[in-house]
Each structure stands twice: as structure tokens, then as C-alpha cells.
Amino acid sequence: MVKRVVGCSAGVRRRPVAPLRITVLMGGPSAEREVSLNSGRAVAAALESLGHHVVRADIHPDDLSPLDRPADLVFIALHGTWGEDGQLQSILDDRGIRYCGCDPSSSALAMNKVLAKRRFLDAGVPTAPFEHVTPANAGQVAEQFDLPAVVKPVAEGSSVDCSIVHGRTALRAAVGHLVDRYGQALVERYVRGIELTVGVLGDETLPPCQVRPKGEFYDYHAKYLADDTEYVFDIDLPEPVLERVGCLTLDAFRALGCRDFARVDWMVESDTLRPFCLEINTIPGFTDHSLLPKAAARVGIGFAELCQRIVELAMARQPGRG
After folding, report:
1. Which of 137, 138, 175, 192 has the fewest Cβ atoms nearer than 10 Å?
2. Active-site residues: which are they?
3. What pLDDT, in 10s, does the model give residues 261-311?
4. CATH: 3.30.470.20, 3.40.50.720, 3.40.980.10, 1.10.10.10. Which one for 109-126+191-298?
5. Phi, psi at residue 239, to the nearest 5°?
């Protein structure tokens, strides 16, 4: 039986909060910079509402000065390259700074979709058939991979440069574009069905949420800009299927060595009701469009309470372990 998070009344804290010095890191160099700035501002405001002493810091690999300020904890609100892939986490570990979220190795593993999917398979977590595309095999994959297919970068988030292709010419073009831009790509079988996302908080799952974009898939526009994307918690799937997705979510989370919180994305195939794990987001969005806060709110955990719980998980770790 999957372990679900037990909520509390929205806006009601479980116990008084001892004020901490918290630096919220946001911005960064990735394609998801603007989303990160929005996430960071929201997190900072929430923590301030609880009485914490918060510093907002737009950090960059060429300017690590925000880390020089004394803090009890760093809350990482960066998405994508450098902030989410283990590089920043390694810097924080080297400096002995406590922070929220995954350690360097699990961050790097989750960010690399190819390595993550291989680890899922080793752990018995189903994921769609795929090919790791490099300059050496790009032509062969483009000519032989079954259609329709999904083509995406190996290590980007927020569906940046992700596309669904239905024809051979489109597959050649998409593969060529990503290999030229990134040096590699991921091509996986397109799974037609219901898209779900399941948040993890601590070692428990939040309620699964169905995502219904108006376009062909849940792309960057649908995630952060559109107002017509639907998020549904009353999901038209058999309860045993939802229970299985919940259990597999924790399996995937543990297989990559994640900690504190994450969001695990799924496709449930319409014809077979088989779930396929897409990826794990180790620093999911904290904006008004974001799914982890929506799922937490579903069980009565308000935004500020969610941020506080994440802070408490990090503070409970032994010093020197992030």
C-alpha cells in the first residue's frame, strides 16, 4: 500500500516555527531561468510569512557571492542546467552548506533522462522504449525508430525543445536539431493516454494529478503561460491503477536516491492502462501553475506549509549531509 501524505488544515501550522536564516537561490543560467525567478520569489514570500529571515539571491556560476552570506539553510529554487543537475549541490556540499532537496549524485542522475530511464528499468519501474541518440547513431535511429515518437533533450527540463513527431521527415529534423544543439538526444515511444504527475514529500506521495493541456502535449507554454490547461484530481482511472502508480512513484524516487521532495511524471496508456514513467523533477516548479503545490493543497497543505515541511526535512539531516 502506497504511503500518502496526511494533510492539515490550510494555513494552520503544526507547531510554532523557529525563525531561520534562509537564502533562497533562484535564476541561474538555464533555459528555465524565468520560471526559476518566479518559483524563488514565491518560496521567499512564503517563508517570510512564517517568520523566517529570508535573503533572495539570483545566483550564477560566475557569481557565487550569495553563498558567502551566513545562513542556516539554502532553499534551491533553480530549475534545469547547473541548478538542478548536481553542479550547484556539489558546490554547496564542498562549502558545508545545508540545503533542501537531492544530493549531487541523485540530482545528476534525475537530470539525465537516459541514465534515469536505465535506472528505472533496473528497479522494475516501467518506462517507454527509448534510444539514446548520438552523432554516431543519429541517422540509424531517425530511419528505424517506430513512429510516432517523442524527441527531447537528454538534460533539459520544462519540455524545452521537446516534440512529438509522426512522420519520418519530422523525426530526422527533430533528431538533427537536438544533436546539433546538444550533442545528443533521447527518442522514446509515444505513449497515447492519460498524463499524470505525482508529488513526493519526504517518503510519502501526494495525490496524483491528471494534466489536460489543450495542445498535443504538456509543453512549456501549457506549463507556465496558458490559462486553459486543466489539472484534475478526480481521475477517470481504476483505483488499482492509481495505487500502482503511487507505489511505482516511490520506487522511482528511491531508485534514483532522491530525498525531501520531487515530482514524478507518468503516462498511463489508454488501451492497456499500463503506466510508464517519464521522468523525475527534483526541483519542480513553485509557481501558481505548478503541480507540487496544487497536489499539496489537495490534502490541505498550503503553500507556506509545504515550504516549511521541505525546510524541516533538510534541517533534520545530520550536518555535512546537505
Report:
1. 192
2. 32, 158, 224, 263, 265, 279, 281, 285
3. 999 999 999 999 999 999 999 999 998 779 999 999 999 999 999 999 999
4. 3.30.470.20
5. -55, -40
